[in-house]
Amino acid sequence: MIAKWWCAGLVLFSLHAQADETVSPRARQLHENAIVLDTHLDTPSNLHRPGWNILERHDQDGEFAQVDLPRMKQGGLDGGFWVIYTAQDKRDEAGNRQARDHGLVRLAAIREMIAAHPQDFELALTADDAARIEKAGKRVVFISMENASPLASDPSLLTAYHKLGLRMLGITHTSNNDFGDSSTDPAGHEWNGLSDKGRALVQEANRLGILLDASHASDQVFDQLVELSKAPIVLSHTSADAVYEHPRNIDDARIRKLAAKGGVIHVNAYSGYLIPVPKIPQRDAEMEALEKHYGEYSKLSPAQIQQWRRDQAEIDRKYPVPRANLDDYMRHLLHILKVAGPEHVGIGADWDGGGGVTGLEDVSALPKITERLLAAGYSERDIRNIWGGNLLRTMRAVQTTAEKK
C-alpha cells in the first residue's frame, strides 16, 4: 500500500520553503493564551523509529516528522489527538489479526511516550483534563483511532481501548472495511454506508463516551453517523468540497447538518485535498516502487530516512506537481467557517500523515493561522473556540450522553 503522504501525489517540500509571514504581537499573545489542539496527529508512527526522540527537533526529516516537543512549544501547540493509524490490508482472519496486533502496538507506543516523559506529556481522558494539563505546562495527549480495522476480529476490544485512553474513533481509512464504506475505495461502496457491524460499533462508542469521527468515510456513512449517534460527531481532518471537489472533502449541506447536530469539522492541510493535483502515472509508479523499496518507514534509521527524501526529491524533479500553500488552506478554512459558523470549526491538519502546505510546513508555523483569522475579522473568542474550545465542548457532550445511558 502506498504511504499516506502519497495518496494524493504529494511533492517533497524544502526545509526552507516557509513563507516569510509576520505574526503580530496581538496574534502571538492570543495564540499562546488559547488551548491549541489539533485533532489529527499521526506522530505515533514516529515513536518507535530507531534514534527518533519526541524531545528533539527533527526539521531535517521534512514531511516524515512535523511534530516534536520543541516545535510544539514554538508553535504553541498544546496537544490534541494522537492517532492509532492502521493501513487497511486483507480482511481475512490473518489480516484482521495483523490489524489487531498493529493497533495495540501503536497504542502502547503512545502510552510509552507519556510514561517516559511525564514532565512533558500527560494522558487526557476528559475535556477538563485537557484544561488542567495545559495549565500545568504539559502537552495534552488524547488518543484516537483512524480506521477501525484493529477491532474487526473482536469489536469488544473497543472497551479495552477505552479503558486505556481511546476517546475518538474513525470508522474507515482509504478503503472499505468490515464496519463501513470509505470515500475513496476504488472498488466503490460495499455496504451503502455502515454495515450491521458498524452500526453496532456506533452504539457501543456512544455507550462508552467515545467521539465518532467521519473523516475518510463515505457520504452515506457520514449521514448515518449523524442520524444514529446519540451524541455529536466530528470530522477530524476534512476540507471543503465547494472549494475543491474531491471525494475526501465534504459538501456544504453536510457541513450544515453536522453543525446543526452540534458537531465540529476540523480542517485538513493535506495538499492533495486542497488543490487539484494532476495524475502522472509514471510518478505514481515510481513513488510506489520507492515505498516498496524502503518498506515501513517507522522502522528506518535516520540515514535511511534522509536517503528516502533524496530519492523522493529526484522523482519530484522529474515529475513536478503543484503544492498547496497557506492561502489555499485558508480558502478552505474560511469557507467552512462561513458555512458552519465559528462554533463548529476546528483544526486537524494531518501532521505527520501528509499534512502541511507551503508556508505551514510544520506545527511551529501554527500562529500564522491565528494571524489570518484575526485579519479575516474573527473575534478572539471565536479563535479560541476554533483552536480548542469547540472540540472540548463536543467532548463534554459526548461524555455527558454516555453518562445518561
From TrEMBL:
Keywords: Dipeptidase, Hydrolase, Protease, Signal. Residues 1-19 form the signal peptide. Its EC number is 3.4.13.19. GO terms for molecular function: dipeptidase activity. The keyword Thylakoid does not apply. It comes from Pseudoxanthomonas sacheonensis. This is Membrane dipeptidase. InterPro entries: Metal_Hydrolase, Pept_M19. The keyword Protease applies.
